[in-house]
Amino acid sequence: MPYSYHTFGHALDPRAVEIVDLPDKVEDYFYLRDGVPMASYLPPTTELSLYEGAGDMFTDFIDNPDRALYVSQRVQDVLSSRGLVGTAIELLPFVLLDKRGRRVRETYAIANPLVRVPCLDFERSKYRRSAGNPNEIAEVKLLHLREDAIPDDAQLFRVAEFTEMMVLRSDLLDAFQQAGLTGLAVQPIGTPIPG
Question: Which candidate, 98, 113, 27, places its Cα nearest to that of 68?
Answer without folding.
Answer: 113
